Amino acid sequence: MYVDSHNHTSLFSADASMKAGELFLAARSADLRGVVITEHYEMDYPHFLNKELIFDVDAYFHSLSADQASIPSGLSVFSGIELGYQSHLVDFYNQLTSSHPFDSIILSNHLYKGQDPYFFRECYLEPKHIVFGNYVNELTEMVLSGIDFDIVGHFDYMSRYAPYEDPRLYYSDAPDEIDRFLSAIILKKKSLEINTRSINKLTAKGFLDGFPDKEIMRRYLSLGGDRVTLGSDSHDPSTVGCLFRETAAFLQSCGFQEVTTYECRKEIRTPIL
Q1: 256 to each of 5, 226, 229, 240, how far by Cα in Å?
Q2: Structural domains of the chain, count
């Protein structure tokens, strides 16, 4: 029924463990209509890793072509990329994506004040409303930066690693900042990703309701935002398409009637059933 618009494989994403064939089989088991392989392209990542979070884009498309024979019947596989935002990379990223036939492009911010909170835990020493408000401001800067993209990745990224008693991002934490962010998405006609990896991480912390704040989603809708995209952000087969039906039902309860995916950079609307 749905397309999972955010997945990583071990061949091209340094932090992933699944092969393309495993992704395809997991997608069929999850009754998905399609998947997008969105490998990490995190140029100038500030932390040391054993392998860079970038990949050979030409090799990626060659591999995608070679994988066609192993795609199960009834499953569509789309090309994608997840760009890691930094302000000095605008021209570089635009040159990269304009030179290759991606179906969809996710733009994500994995950094807070120039460092990834996965490693930079000291950032959470500041009060929650300041940290989240600053991060949302960085997201707004990202959306308005001039980078050509389709989907805003995991806007609640800071919640994943936050040590606060309640790490979820609420509208009340930073209403002005969130309004500016949502308005920027609407102005640029981009889609807001609902990332089920974030939902899973909150559930693992013991929260029964890991979905985004309904007030944020309803505010987005009231401002004129109607583009939302489902992405599992899977790095292994166990989470492909995870919680999609539940998340779709959540979105419907907020007033959304469709989810948005992309093919050849053109949006496709699918009714929530």
Answers
A1: 18, 7, 11, 22
A2: 1
Name the nearest CA neighbour of 191 among 255, 264, 247, 266: 266
Residue 166 sits in a domain of what CATH number? 3.20.20.140
Q: How far apart are the first and last CA of the chain?
A: 9
Give the span between the Cα atoms of 135 and 273, in whole angstroms: 33
Selection from 145, 32, 11 nearest residue 84 by Cα:
145
Convert the pLDDT of each residue in 32-91 to its tens digit. 999 999 999 999 999 999 889 999 999 999 999 999 999 999 999 999 999 999 999 999
Helix H or strand E encompassing 131:
helix 128-143
- Quote the domain boundaries for residue 240: 3-271
Structure tokens at 248: 């779709």
Q: Which residues contact 127 (CB under 8 A, 6 or more apart)?
A: none
Strand partners, 194: 230
Q: What's CA 129's distance to the chain center, in Å?
A: 22
Contact residues for 30 (Cβ-Cβ < 8 A; gap 6+)? 4, 240, 241, 242, 244
For 264, what's the count of Cα atoms within 13 Å in the CB-facing half-sphere? 0
CB 8 within 8 Å of CB 54 = no
* In the block, residue with structure tokens 């395809």: 24
